[in-house]
Every structure is written in structure tokens, then in C-alpha cells.
Amino acid sequence: MAAEALVVAIVGAESTGKTALAKALAARIEAETGLVCTWVPEHLRAWCETRGRTPRADEQAAIARAQRDTIEAAAAGADVVVADTTPLMTAVYSRLLFEDDSLDAEACAWQRGRCAVTLLTALDLPWVADGLQRDGPQVRGPVDTALRELLAAHAIGWALVCGDGDERLENALDAIAPALRGRAAPRRGLFTRLAGRDAADRPWRCELCDDPACEHAARRG
């Protein structure tokens, strides 16, 4: 029986490069490992575009379920799935916009149990307007704070990914490389990266982290 697909979750505040990173990461993983890798877009974006509005409080749970189900459907036909957001993001926005924490437990339990790696995108990219679901740069700080609090409260390991363009992608690859160990015979890049890290005998850390102790404490926990 084939191994269950490995899910890499990308979460973070709006306009922090999640979609671009998800696309690039999926392509690199497939090219460097030979594994079948796909990426799953954000369901909320399509929802807003179809209806021409943002969701109400009573519609949040269905959006979270749809995001989860889309990820699971992709996992049925792939070795690795890179998810551009997860139900955790819906839970965060429900908290901030509607003061509703009813989605927290289910979203966090799925994230902890199903996602092999959780990447949190840093707030180091400029905010860019893009569609109905983006509120403005002023919401990025509160969203980032709420995400970190939920990840810590539910013992979900995570790694911060920062930098622009290729640097962001390389940092993400460093963070996920250990999870891919043993999934496929080595090709190049990614497994050379793993060997180099093992030889150095030191943990991966992001030198540009905007909160140096936070993600390392979460990973140790």
C-alpha cells in the first residue's frame, strides 16, 4: 500500500507570498525528488470571486471544510501536496472578524495530525492589493499574532519562512527537507542539502527571523 501523501501547509497573513511560494515549492519538490507533487490553491479566493463578496460568519465553517476536502482530494493522487492555506486560516479570520473561536479545535487538530510541515510566511514582503479577501496592511500583524498563538496553544510545530523570491523558496526547502527523507530515491539538490545539514550537525534556523526564539521554541515543543 502506498504511503499517505505528505502535506506541506503554508499559512500566514495576507500578501505574504503564500501562493507564489506554494507553486514554486511544488515544482521544485517534484523536480528534485521525482515524487508526484501538486499544490492546492486557497478556496476562499475562488469563493469570493464567484460571489462577489466576502463570507459571513455562518459561512466560515463550510469554507474551512472545503479547503480541507480539497487538500485531501489532491492527496489521493499525489505523493506530496503543498497547500496554499488550510482550515487554520479560516479559524484565525473567524476569531478576528467575528470573535468566533468555534473553528479552532477542529482546524488545529487536522493541522497537527495531517500536515507534516507547517510553514509560516513572514511579514517581510510589501502588502499588495489583490481581490476582495484582502483587507489592508493593518491586519497582517494581528493575523500573524493570532496564528502564532494558535500554533503554540495546540502544539503544532512550524517554521518561519522569510526572504524574497529565490531566498524565500530556498528557506522553505531547508525547512521541509527532513520530512522528505526516505520518500524517494535521491535525485539531486534537496538530498544534497539534507546531507550537508546532517554533516554540519546543527539545527536549521532562519537568520532573518522576525522573532528568533518563537519558532524554535515551538519546534522543540
From TrEMBL:
Residues 8-168 form the NadR/Ttd14 AAA domain. GO terms for molecular function: kinase activity. Pfam families: AAA_28. Coiled coil: none annotated. The keyword Ribosomal protein does not apply. Keywords: Kinase, Transferase. InterPro entries: NAD_biosynth-regulator, NadR/Ttd14_AAA_dom, P-loop_NTPase. Transmembrane segments: none annotated. This is Nicotinamide riboside kinase. It comes from Rubrivivax gelatinosus (Rhodocyclus gelatinosus). The lineage of its organism: Bacteria, Pseudomonadati, Pseudomonadota, Betaproteobacteria, Burkholderiales.
